[in-house]
Design a protein that fits this description.
The protein is an alpha/beta fold. Strands 10, 13, 16, 17, 18, 19, 20, 21, 22 and 23 form a ten-stranded mixed β-sheet that branches. Strands 3, 4, 5, 6, 8 and 9 form a six-stranded antiparallel β-sheet that branches. The chain has a five-stranded mixed β-sheet with strand order 25-33-32-27-29. The chain starts with a helix and ends in a 22-residue tail after the last helix.
């Protein structure tokens, strides 16, 4: 044991001496590999350029490899990878793009691989290397045209300078090889926005003004380009025109002037430049068709037609219906047949070609919806472009449709227009014959939840009552449009926005909110001193439009006390009106009841007002007292008059007797010549 320990000590001292000597001589010593720490290399593709579609044409790819880990890598080599299986089917392309696998391998020949470091040279953490790989189509084995191929780059390396290298980084994309014929491309810009209009000239918020000043301006400008087509939601145009002539926003139950009038005016001027030959329209408000089908609301198509009638310049455009989530199915096509659309645009067909047919007779524009997610880096951007080109080349002479929903999609479409595609108008695409029957890729149905779909019936009921309350309403003059906006498919991913919009609709039309704005004032206790009386009641209208109502009463004992309803009266907004009620009683006592405001068709508005009516006969007693008092007064007056007359008669008789007992006396007349005038003495 002692000898062993001594030997181990001598060995350790010897190794230390060798290490020190190597260090002094400056000989590099590779660090010890950490088996538990994997190599982390990041591969970025910065460009991918094919020079053509001939076998001799070159495909060149520029890349950057970075050691983003904490340990060095050795024997780093990059190889071109490809699969020689031609992709001619949209379904297979979608499967591979979603992460599916295919058989493939490294290409051989000059330029198809790049040595980054040898097995003895470390590629240190943080180190970066740019490089280029290239190969002809013949080298890659891409010998078919009008097809796409899976293509990419693998990077292999090892952590311990051995030959046990493995793939530590890779990129995958697609490489289209075009044929002789060009591919007709129909790129469609979708002009739409989340609904904000509650009623004519009344909006829920200023979000549309923000959209018009931001996203929608470059969208409409791009739609005016010769290579692009456009679809507009009629609800958007209706809202913009409404804002252009002035509007108000509902804020905390009050209407305030909007601020987006100029933005709306400017946008309309841009929209006027669009070529109708490149245009189309969607269903009004882009309703949730899947939700409407599930809740049995086929009337959404009639509502859409009614709401679009006021937009005469759109009525002549072809109708292209957008199903919920832009995805189709056999059931969805059967329901959408009721729309009477020129076509239904869907993004989940497994068949290539712009225009396809269904068993229900509905035609399908099979489109690729361009992503609105900003690519994370150059590799993602190139991969997105190559997928779009692969979809185009597979479409071939049958054509391809792209749906552009935002600014990122606009840029992506512009970056994926090689010389072998040519633009085709939407009208021309719709006029072509269908090339194939659609085959649906199964997808999870997207639609509004049950709670939000139930809003449709609640809103319809509320508007019906409101229109009875306000017979000449302007706010409720577009009930179909309000209903469609409440179930717009744009609300599917935005639960909070949907609830806020629907809450604003109910604040405007809801029975409870309207009832709070119209008040009935009645004294809680009324006393009737007779079998018939009249009392005042006051109706106050704090809403936005004139209301037409009457007051109806209900009592616990209608046999004892009945209160006829008042006449219908119209009360202007911000005004009050007082009317008289005339209860009729058949007996004394205390009767409770309630007073309510009622519309012409019997809908009750607001909460009932409780009241108590007391009936007494004090009025009758008072009349009796008055009558008796009158009789007493008349009797007393007559007796007094009689006494006065008797006294006067007695006095007159005594005077006559006195005059009969006295001699008669005369007064002599003055002489005729005598003058009564005074005379002046001389």
């Amino acid at each position: 044991m002692t000898n062993g320990n001594a030997w181990a000590g001598r060995l350790a001292r010897g190794l230390a001496f060798v290490a020190a000597t190597v260090a002094l001589l400056g000989v590099p010593v590779p660090p010890v590999a950490h088996a538990d720490t994997p190599i982390q290399l990041t591969l970025t593709m910065t460009s991918l350029t094919p020079s053509g579609s001939k076998p001799s044409d070159l495909v060149t790819v520029h890349l950057t490899v970075t050691n983003t880990g904490t340990v060095p890598a050795y024997g780093v080599v990059a190889h071109l990878w490809r699969s020689r299986d031609a992709i001619r089917d949209q379904g297979n392309l979608s499967t591979l793009a979603s992460g599916g696998t295919t058989l493939g391998g490294w290409s051989s020949g000059p330029g198809t691989h790049q040595l980054i470091t040898t097995s003895m040279t470390a590629f240190e953490p943080g180190q970066v290397r740019d490089f280029t790989l290239s190969a002809t189509l013949a080298q890659l084995g891409f010998d078919s045209t009008s097809a796409a191929y899976a293509f990419g780059v693998d990077v292999v390396a090892t952590a311990d300078q051995s030959s046990n290298n493995s793939v530590v980084a890779k990129v995958r994309t697609f490489l289209p090889v075009s044929g002789k014929a060009s591919v007709p491309l129909t790129s469609v810009v979708l002009l739409t926005s989340k609904p904000t209009k509650l009623a004519p000239n009344v909006f829920a918020n200023e979000n549309l003004a923000t959209d018009l000043s931001g996203r929608l301006t470059p969208m409409v400008d791009a739609a005016a380009g010769a290579d692009l087509n456009w679809l507009i939601d009629p609800a958007l145009l209706d809202e913009v025109r409404d804002q252009a002539d002035g509007y108000q926003v509902l804020v905390d139950g009050k209407l305030r002037d909007g601020t987006g009038q100029q933005a709306a005016t400017d946008w309309l001027a841009r929209f006027a430049k669009l070529d109708p030959a490149h245009g189309g329209r969607t269903l009004f408000g882009n309703p949730d068709t899947a939700g409407a089908a599930a809740t049995d609301h086929p009337q959404i198509f009639d509502w859409s037609a009614t709401s679009t009638q006021d937009l005469a310049d759109l009525s002549a455009l072809p109708l292209v219906a957008l199903p919920s989530g832009l995805t189709g199915s056999s059931a969805a096509m059967n329901f959408l047949k009721g729309a009477g659309a020129s076509a239904v645009l869907a993004t989940n067909s497994r068949v290539a070609g712009a225009l396809q047919s269904t068993s229900s007779g509905t035609r399908v524009l099979a489109a690729q919806a361009l992503s609105e997610v900003q690519p994370a880096d150059a590799t993602a951007s190139i991969t997105q472009r190559q997928l779009m080109l692969a979809q185009s080349v597979i479409g071939g002479k049958r054509g391809q449709v792209r749906l552009i929903t935002g600014l990122i999609g606009l840029a992506a479409d512009a970056a994926a227009r090689p010389s072998w595609v040519n633009s085709r108008d939407l009208d021309a695409t719709l006029d072509t014959d269908t090339h194939a029957g659609v085959e649906w890729e199964p997808v999870k149905e997207q639609r509004l939840d049950a709670a939000r779909l139930s809003m449709l019936d609640r809103l319809n009921d509320a508007v019906t009552i409101y229109r009875a309350l306000v017979p000449d309403s302007v706010l409720a003059s577009q009930p179909a449009a309000s209903s469609l906006r409440s179930i717009s498919a744009t609300w599917i991913p935005d639960t909070e926005g949907s609830r806020a919009f629907n809450q604003a609709l109910m604040e405007l039309f809801g029975r409870e909110a309207v009832g709070d704005r119209i008040r009935l004032n009645v004294s809680p206790r009324l006393v009737m001193s007779a079998r018939s009386n009249q009392f005042p009641v006051t109706i106050t209208n704090s809403s936005f439009e004139p209301v037409k109502v009457r007051v109806e009463f209900t009592t616990q004992n209608p046999q004892r006390l009945a209160v006829p309803p008042s006449e219908f009266v119209t009360v202007d907004p911000g005004q009050s009106q007082t009317i008289n009620i005339r209860p009729e009683a058949t007996g004394n006592g205390l009767v409770t009841g309630k007073a309510e405001l009622v519309t012409e068709n019997g809908h009750r508005i607001g909460d009932p007002v409780p009241l108590t009516i007391e009936v007494t006969d004090l009025g009758v007693v008072a009349w009796i007292i008055v009558g008796v008092s009158g009789a007493v007064l008349v009797g007393a007056t007559a007796w007094r008059i009689r006494q006065v007359r008797r006294r006067d008669a007695a006095a007159q008789a005594g005077q006559s007797e006195a005059e009969a007992g006295e001699p008669e006396s005369t007064i002599p007349e003055p002489p005729a010549s005598a003058s009564t005038e005074p005379t002046e003495e001389p």
